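note to self — DONT lose this again. spent like an hour looking for the file last time. sequence + predicted structure for the chain T wanted, 401 res
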Amino acid sequence: MSSAVLSRPAPALADRLAGVASSPVRELLALLDRPQVVSFAGGLPAPELFDLDGVRAAYESVLWGPSARRALQYAPTEGDRELRARVAARMTARGLLTTVDDLLVTSGSQQALSLVATALLDPGAVVLVEDPTYLAALQCFQLAGARVVPVPTDEHGIDPAALADVLERERPALLYLVPTFANPTGRTMPAERRAEVVELTARHGVWVVEDDPYAELRYRGAPVLPLAAHPGADDHVLHVGSFSKIAAPGQRLGWLRAPSRLLPALTVAKQAADLHTSTVDQAAAAAWFAAADVEAHVMTLCSAYRARRDALVEALPDALPQGSTWTDPDGGMFVWVRLAGAPDTADLLHRALAHDVAFVPGAAFYAGTPDRATLRLSFTTNTPARIAEGVARLGAALADG
């Protein structure tokens, strides 16, 4: 073989990938095929609670119905009109007045974030996030070339005084929030603080993305109006939702509600990304919403998840070191733990896996300096008895240290 062939340069990757880390949650899921492992790692809905019969019937009605061929054809970028009407009605019932024409159907809520980044962020733009925040959003904004700046939080979410200071100092393009049952902390922002955040960002001319996949999974207390429903939000607050938590994540269906002046740009961004979301999956989702008792299904989910949250929160005091703290969420999927002292939960994870239990170390959720003594526990995919066993194993791993 000639030296010329040996020295041939390899094609390069795009520079934008250099600062984007792989998701530790995805990596953990790939390692957890062993059935004996109790996993608190993935933020997954419980598969045994899927409405399998209802979803199967919905696909059958679409593929055997009079519009079967249309369901297999290309479709409008904005999405299935009947499905958007169902979403609009549900959002309006939650206090966020919405019409069909306010909505864009996306391939999961994650694509909605990608479209927002494409439409609103130039390289070097500043994005503000809660600290900690949803790690896949961090990936999305980093891939867009944005500079991600964390804003301090407390037990009620983002700190408005800190937000006001960062808005003045950084002149951001966008603020990203998960204000209801946040991933990873489980915290919920109260109504008064939501109104303050809307007013602050309106005054500074900053877009706000309200990521809201968990709101229907409420186990305690009264619902809180979405940020996008507050006075003054119409022109600058985008609302992102998902079918994954109440229907089935495998369908990859979400939606984006946006101000009318922004929807054309988001539609063009989606056309460039994938033309449109799967036609047959949208049609089946619309058929499921039409035929199923969706409210009863959501109540079943909430009943099961409430018992699982309770089992986790009740088991933690006996397993964690004295002085540790954790959230007790009103809904959603996650409990956020801070261990006493200054341990590194990445090191703890190795010991935990040896005890057949898994969690996500907290460092990955921080845009700034991470608190390495934190970790995220998801309670939705294990029964109460299995949760108690998993927490006991976590306690044994902590004792090993």
